[in-house]
Amino acid sequence: MKWFGKDAILSAIDPDQAIAAIGRAFQDHSSGKVQAIATGHLRFDQPPGDVHVKGAHIDGRPLFAVKVASSFYENPHGSEPAVEHRPDGGLRRPYRRSPRGPVR
């Protein structure tokens, strides 16, 4: 899997196309074309934290997405952020609606 930093992502995005795509996604959502799973949530006491899972698909589109993210409020080592913003702190993955599976 490849990791891309903020600068690489921003240089690959056309702002006008991004705004248009976001607008279409809101239109699709408001017209009932979006299927979204109920958010799954796990809470932990020791160490205190949580994990949540979300997923969605827009009807007629070839991809769907799943996101897993975690937050641990007391970092026992003090060297990592409490909320996971690092590349390995969660999973955001697009998949194809076909036997080919994940997008690589």
Give an overview in words.
With 104 residues, this protein is an alpha+beta fold. It has one domain (6-96): ornithine cyclodeaminase, domain 1 (2-Layer Sandwich). Helices cover 22% and strands 34% of the residues. It has two helices and five strands; from the N terminus they run H-H-E-E-E-E-E. It has helices spanning 6-12, 15-30; strands at 34-36, 40-44, 49-58, 63-72, 90-96. Strands 1, 2, 3, 4 and 5 form a five-stranded antiparallel sheet that branches. The mean pLDDT is 82.
CATH architecture: 2-Layer Sandwich
The CATH C-level name is: Alpha Beta
Which structural class do you get from the secondary structure elements?
A: alpha+beta
Beta-sheet strand percentage? 25-35%
- Total tally of structural domains: 1
Please give the share of residues in helix. 10-25%
Mean pLDDT: 82
Unreliable sequence segments: none
The helix/strand series, from N terminus to C terminus, equals: HHEEEEE
Query: For this structure, what is the CATH homologous superfamily?
Result: ornithine cyclodeaminase, domain 1
Query: Biggest sheet, open or closed, and with what strands and sense?
Result: 5 strands, antiparallel
Calculate the terminal CA-CA distance, rounded to whole Å: 7 Å
Number of strands: 5
Gyration radius (Cα, Å) is 17 Å
According to CATH, the fold-level topology is: ornithine cyclodeaminase, domain 1
Task: Give a quick summary of the entry.
With 104 residues, this protein is of the alpha+beta class.
